Amino acid sequence: MGNDITSRTFFDDVRNILRSARQKAYSNANFLMVEAYWQIGQRIVQEEQAGKERAEYGSLIIRALSRQLGDEFGTGLSASNLWNFRRFFLAFPSTGKLYALRRELTWTHYRLIMRVENPAARDYYVQEAAEQAWSTRQLDRNITTLYYERLLKAPDIKPDDTPLGVVLPDAPESFIKDPYVLEFLGLQESPVEHESKLEARIISKLQLFLLELGKGFSFVGRQFRVSSETSHYYIDLVFYNYLLCHNG
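Now predict its structure.
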C-alpha cells in the first residue's frame, strides 16, 4: 500500500493538478486585465464622443487620465498605454467581439493583432494564435508576412462570413500558401545556392520552416530513398501532412 501511495505516478498526478491550476489562474487573471483594458478604451471613446466638438479632446482626456491615475496605478496607465486601450476597443468595438476573444492570448498578442486593418484577418489571427499556441514572435511574423492574405491566394480558398474568415476545404491545394516566405533561411534574393546548401539551411531552421508550411505538416526524413524494381532514388526532404491523410 505504501509503495502505491508514494509512486511516481501519484506525485506526477498531484504536480500536474497544481500546474494546471496555476495556469488557469494565470489565464483568468490575464484575461481579466485584457477585459479591463477594453472597458477603459470604451470609456475613453464614450468620453471623446461626449466632447467631440472640442478640438483634440481625445488627447486632452488621455493626458488628464494618465496624470490623474498614473501615481495610483503606475506606468500601466501611461498615455501611450491609454492610446492602446482606445485602439483595442475600436478594433473590437462590440461586447460580442470582446467575449469572442480568447483567454489563451496575452495583451501582447492583442496589441499585435489590433494593428491589422482587415476585421476578418483580425478574427483569423485571434483564433489561429489561440488554437495553434503561437508565441507573440510567431504571431508578429505571420502578420508581417501577410499569412492570412497568402492563404486567401491559395487555390479554392475564399473569405466567408465566419469568424475565422478562411474556409479550408478538403482539397490538397487548400493547404498550400501562395507564396511561401522563407526570409529566415537567409537566402540570396537571386538564388544561386546549390541544392545541398538549401537543404542544409532548411534542416537548420526546421521548426520555422514547418511553421511556414502551415497546419498539419511534419518532417519525415532527409535523403529519403524511394526504390523501383531497377533503381533507387533519393528525395532531398520529405514532409507529411496528417490532416490531408485524415481528410482522405
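Residues 158-170 have pLDDT under 50 and may be disordered.
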